[in-house]
Amino acid sequence: MANALLKPMRVAFGETLLELGAEIPNLVVLDADISSSLHTFHFAQQYPNRHINFGVAEQNMMISAAGLATTGLIPIACTYATFATMRACEQIRSFICYANLNVKIAASHGGIEVGWDGPTHQATEDIAITRAMPNMTVVSPADAIAASALLRQVIQHQGPVYFRMGRNPVPILYDKNQPFSIGKSIRLHNGVHLTLVATGVMVSIGLEVVERLAQHGIQAGLIDMHTIKPIDQDAIIEAAQQTPLIATLEDHNIVGGLGAAVAEILSEACPRRILRFGVPDVFSESGNPKDLFRKLGMDAESITHRIMQSIALNPELRG
Amino acid sequence: MKIFIHRTRICLDKRLYCATIKLSDKRLRNRTSPPKSMKHNPETILSLQRIAKRIRIESVRMIANAGSGHPGGSLSEADILAALYFHVMRIDPKNPAWEDRDRFILSKGHACAGLYATLALRGFFPIEQLATFRCCGSILQGHPDMKKTPGVEMTAGPLGNGLGAGVGMALGARITGKTFRVFVLIGDGDAQEGCTWEAAMLAGHQKLNHLICIYDYNRSQVDGRTDEIVSLHPVEEKWLAMNWDVRKIYGHDFTQILDAFVWSCQPRQKPAVIIAYTIKGKGVSFMEDNAAWHGKAPNKEQLEWALKELAEEEN
Ligand SMILES: Cc1ncc(C[n+]2csc(CCOP(=O)(O)OP(=O)(O)O)c2C)c(N)n1
Ligand SMILES: [Mg+2]
């Protein structure tokens, strides 16, 4: 892990979009003045008549995406997660989801991993918002390979999709041949004492937590929940049957996100103790993401510590 | 399938920028045709020029120190900020919550390095704080946070919101019988957001004559030139159509800036907008009119070069 190759998901996104441009003639890319950040400029240069820059006008971009979709095109609207899901929230909800139009929303800068730009640019509600919209599919890849493979599926998928990426370089976790399919999670480790269910950039942190716990004789399982909606219920219930403790890991508010989704399923199907790791319902701040993660208990060390504490305090979890 | 979409041009290639003819100060001056100037004390002008230079130096330095931030927009607004905070606005740095103070809102919140440098120089907080910009625990967030920074009147960062916040403050002043003035600095990319024009329409309708908007017209945004992405032209007519009084200036000439503020603060029936033709990155040759420097920190060498140019630039 320590020497893993690093690559930002948005770079893989831009590269794959360029490939898809050649393969899918009705794919159109929409930007709102940050094509340099989303790496959509490759596509824009190659396919100028299938690229539209709306300027700083996310609401108009999103509602126009709905209009474009009615003409048989597949629009992919690209911006930061805050602006996509909050500035243009109603356009997505009432005109893309309600109308069930084939629009893809690609967002980078999901989570406090954004760091220096601060809370206005750190989306910690976007999963909760998009997850609450009927007809929506919510996808959150963990590395550059997953971003590329899942993007291909997203474009093939019929209906609205919210595709969430981070800002910074993240370790490459997957082999190029790893199969991905929307709605089907990936099991990275089998556990005895607990199972970690992670999404996005938290999957690589989950891997580190697994290693750290192993040093203390605790065997943790790990699931990459790259699709948050529709969520892989079977995998979650199976994990709860195998291990007495479930921990969810997300770079998002613990309210309404992955942790909430997992808790909703287990409370009905297989009640288990759940630890939710993520942003503890606060606004973060500007700073190095490493510092912010530590401050909010989202780094591998803090997560490991809290899990061990919980196991120590609850004899039934010792297995 | 037939694909029928309007071709839109984008301008990302750095080489394209290098090839673009830089708009010279002179050409801009000619475009703005100022009405005959008032007499301003030459010492005032000189002192404001010195302050603007300090604002630029501190802005570039703090962005380099943080390793991220937005130099282009911070440099284009520096002269306007110097005039506002050191000449025009009725404020008391020792009492930032003074009820009757004039308000300033930076709608283009990304350019907050310029605002923080101005506030520090004006005495709202110690200048040493600038070194903590964008660090964990700092009062100086990556985008303005009104709860953390003395002197920051409104949180900002998501574009298009500053003018609406200013409308709210101006309405509040009217309802509470106050006479403070509300200044809002907006960017041209910022003005592509629809809510800017919702606010402009309401301000015109409500005749908010204590609301003054400064339009930082550097014709540049993240992806390149506004004229190539979504043109704002003709700007003057847009504001006139929203029932505003309009004045055009060259935003780096203190005589014109002060003239415009005297004009904007005269008794009037409408809100006033000052369209300031500016140069993004003004004062640092390699940043000037170059969108590549919208949101990038200079490295050590570039910083030294920039500081040298700024120090030499004798107005
Ligand atoms: C709602 C929103 N969309 C996108 C962004 C990302 N962004 C930051 S600055 C910027 C361009 C701003 O251009 P302008 O207002 O002209 O600023 P200036 O040229 O003065 O730096 C963009 C698109 C944002 N901050 N807010
Ligand atoms: Mg601009």
Describe the structure in brief.
The complex is a heterodimer of chains A (319) and B (315). Chain A is α/β, with parallel strands linked by helices and 319 residues long.
Helix content of chain A: 40-55%
State the strand order across the main sheet of chain B: 1-2-3-5-4
What ligands does this structure carry? thiamine diphosphate, magnesium ion
Structural class of chain B: alpha/beta
Oligomer: heterodimer
- Biggest contact: A-B, 43 and 42 residues
Order of helices and strands of chain B: HHHHEHHEHEHHEHEH
Helix content bin of chain B: 40-55%
Q: Kindly give the count of domains of chain B.
A: 1
What's the overall average pLDDT of chain B, rounded? 91
How would a crystallographer describe the biggest sheet of chain A? 7 strands, mixed
Cα end-to-end separation of chain A: 28 Å
Question: What does the secondary structure layout of this molecule look like, with pairings?
Answer:
The complex is a heterodimer of chains A (about 325) and B (about 325).
Chain A: E1 6-8, H1 9-23, E2 27-31, H2 35-38, H3 41-46, E3 51-53, H4 58-69, E4 74-80, H5 81-87, H6 89-97, E5 104-108, H7 126-131, E6 137-139, H8 144-156, E7 161-164, E8 169-171, E9 186-189, E10 194-198, H9 202-215, E11 220-224, E12 227-229, H10 233-242, E13 245-253, H11 258-269, E14 273-279, H12 289-295, H13 300-313
Parallel strand pairs in A: 2-3, 2-4, 4-5, 5-7, 6-7, 10-11, 10-13, 13-14
Antiparallel strand pairs in A: 1-8, 6-12, 9-11
Helix pairs in contact in A: 1-8, 4-6, 9-13, 10-11
Chain B: H1 14-19, H2 25-32, H3 42-66, H4 71-88, E1 103-106, H5 112-122, H6 162-176, E2 182-187, H7 194-206, E3 211-217, H8 226-229, H9 235-241, E4 245-250, H10 254-264, E5 272-277, H11 300-312
Parallel strand pairs in B: 1-2, 2-3, 3-5, 4-5
Helix pairs in contact in B: 3-4, 3-5, 3-11, 4-5, 4-10, 6-7
The structure holds thiamine diphosphate and magnesium ion (MG).
